[in-house]
Amino acid sequence: MNPAATPSKTLSEAPGADAGDADSDDAATAVVSMYVKQQKIYARAVSGWFAGWRWAMVWATQLVFYGLPWLQWNQRQAVLFDLGARRFYIFGLVLHPQDFIYLTALLIISAYSLFLFTAVAGRLWCGFACPQTVYTEIFMWVERKIQGDRNVRMKRDAGPWTADRIWRAVAKNGVWLLIALWTGFTFVGYFTPIRTLAGLVSQFALGPWELFWIGFYSLATFGNAGFMREQVCKYMCPYARFQSVMFDKDTLIVSYDAERGEPRGSRSRKADPKKIGKGDCVDCGLCVQVCPTGIDIRKGLQYECIGCTACIDVCNGVMDRMKYPRGLIRYATQNGMAKHLSRAEVFRRVLRPRVLVYFAILLLLVAALVTSIAMRSPFRVDVVRDRGALARQVGDGQIENVYRLQIMNATESPHRYQVAVGGLDGISIDGASTIEVMPAEARWMTVSVRVPYETASRQGAGAHPIQFDIRLQDQRADEKQARAVEKSTFVVPR
Fold it and tell me: If we measure between CA atoms, which residue out of 141, 128, 106, 142 comes closest to residue 50?
């Protein structure tokens, strides 16, 4: 059953209502709505200082996102996450799955950065750099260019489907789709070399996974930025729900100065608001019309506010036309508004202990990550006992164990490595003890380790600790000597 077609229940139908109440002419009625119908938001175009910064962030983020996969570094893609080969290339840095700790550190740094930015200036990330905000801004610009600004779109949508309305709707969605497809293609280009991917697209030879992820990411971009928009920010994004935990009364937020603006009301430009008993707010409603989430900032702090500052720009424009001071809507703190603090006092209170602690922790984490990467060994080694070959006694009376060593070259030059073993008297490697590994390659090496029978008898049966010593044999002028020591065990049979 359609909920909208269900008869509304009146107060007289409520349990306990008598006939007298039902017959009363002034009996109150109350409509109980089980849901609120979502009204489409027609955001108005706005220009100003903050709008300029938003577009600067749009250009900066998209130049990086779309341009980075096309950069070359040492005859390969500069940034490539090659999942098939399990190699991650970030300019001159080559990471293996064993370097997962760096990703963990990066996520922790991102979390603390979010805490810091939120404690200082609220949803600054949401308003200026979040992909949802950035792509919504791009899609809304296309919408305005093809279908017109707010009032034109509202009038056209309220009218019939004419030829003009149809071609504009088709053109808008077509441009949106092209942007979404290019976005999906670029996203997959970070995991499959983008030049190879472009060739596959031109030949209609995409693999199933490339086709799926290009389609999935394109559909997500098209749907989120074109249609869902504010619904993502208000209902799907968890940040909107827990941001209040990171706010306090000294957090800079988009604020309406109710003391200065109320009581609001329209008036002529020549009227003196004090003489007519009104505040500076002319109740034009432009702050609501430009809001991408459709809220009224004059009602105070709301979780739907993404801090895009569009209301500040449009209100400042109105104040300029009315010849009133700017800042009726501005970045301010709750303490600053309540205590009438100056701008200098507000910013001094922003640098409170909580913010300084966040900043200090973030600085330490970044320093630790940079130091760790700078001191990172140019190769890694994993030692695995060969389970298919048990400890055994060989012909010359020695005890032999077989190991498999994986040597991962984390540089982009070929290298030769020397393998030695120690930990027991007379222990040695039988056979080849050197291996050459190509740039950014990982190679397995089988190593037979032998111990004299006398040493084995003296040590007794069981597992005994040993260590493999792997050294970079061909030291180059531009690289420092590298060495890796890996522990293992040597098993003496009973």
Answer: 128
